[in-house]
Design brief:
Radius of gyration: 22 Å
Low-confidence stretches: none
Number of helices: 8
Distance between the termini: 36 Å
Number of strands: 0
Mean pLDDT: 85
Strand content: under 5%
Oligomer: single chain
Length: about 140
Amino acid sequence: MVTRWILSRPETLTEIEQLPLKAVLANCPELDALTGHVRSFAQMLTERQGERLPQWLDAVRQDDLSSLHTLVAGIDRDRDAVIAGLTLPWNSGVVEGHVNRIKMLKRQMFGRSGFSLLRKRVLLATCSTTRLSVIGLPSTER
């Protein structure tokens, strides 16, 4: 429950949720610091403020939170790409959706045949989706 409270926007929490969260954070300074860093990162992400990333990384390094230090080290390895991802409006969501769909098809046929069957299933799944959209069926009826 505390995790959900931390990951939620503070303004969306009810008074009943805010009171126990404040009590928990008052009794655990590490969790309070973590909450601040998580919410700050979420704000950077939702408001496309990638230019704030270096300051956020420095703030995290100053706290004694080893789990976040591991995250910071990973971000540092590809800082420019992370800043671009937090700033630019483009993303690879469509591509990731297709990859996810293909992996699902592959999992469904686990242990059966090989690449040729997977190729046929992917092509048939794509054709049937295209055919349904051509005749004007909404996505809920597919």
